[in-house]
Inverse folding.
């Protein structure tokens, strides 16, 4: 059984999907950079220890990540899964967890990297978008791709309906990739 940490900044539906799935991993920690985020209440409800940081309390990214790294090591976390963590991973964490940081992104990368990927795809007129799971490198949503699944944009679709379908695919795909990586 591997020990993992999940990083999230917001709602936490992916966090909860992983936390309630039958996986061969123990979630040792939720790392959250947004005090008050919904994901924190989910962790509390599910009995998963959460550490909440305010990046502004640190002089720079390296100092912020050093603190996280200390906490990850104390928890013996072996992998990091990003699930809506809205911050670039810097060299401190990248070097310590080389090849062991994974991200989920709501588009078919390399299309629509960065923020608001679902609405960008929706308003661009493409007929298909989807979900990508990839290893994290120093860029924004640029690391080696592990898995992708397409989601059709239907005639008469709304952004809300598309978002809901994408999140459904995310939850399933993230769990199956996680199981595969940790087996
Ligand atoms: C997901 O769409 C994920 O792909 C993106 O951020 C969103 C997080 O959603 N990186 P949630 O917080 O897991 O509900």
């Amino acid at each position: 059984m591997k020990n993992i940490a999940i990083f999230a900044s917001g709602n936490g539906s992916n966090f909860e999907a992983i936390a309630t799935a039958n996986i061969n991993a123990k979630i040792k920690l939720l790392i959250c950079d947004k005090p008050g985020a919904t994901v924190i209440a989910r962790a509390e409800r599910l009995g998963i220890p959460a550490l909440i940081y305010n990046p502004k309390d640190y002089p720079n990214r390296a100092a912020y990540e050093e603190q996280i790294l200390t906490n990850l090591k104390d928890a013996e976390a072996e992998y990091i899964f990003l699930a809506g963590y809205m911050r670039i991973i810097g060299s401190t964490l990248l070097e310590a967890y080389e090849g062991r940081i994974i991200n989920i992104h709501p588009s078919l990368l390399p299309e629509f990297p960065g923020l608001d990927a679902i609405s960008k795809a929706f308003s661009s007129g493409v007929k298909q978008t989807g979900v990508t799971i990839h290893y994290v490198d120093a860029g924004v949503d640029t690391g080696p791709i592990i898995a992708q699944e397409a989601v059709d944009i239907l005639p008469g679709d709304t952004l809300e309906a598309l978002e809901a379908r994408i999140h459904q695919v995310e939850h399933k795909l993230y769990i199956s990739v996680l199981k595969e990586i940790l087996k």
In short: The beta strands are 2-8, 25-32, 50-52, 79-82, 101-105, 128-135, 145-152.
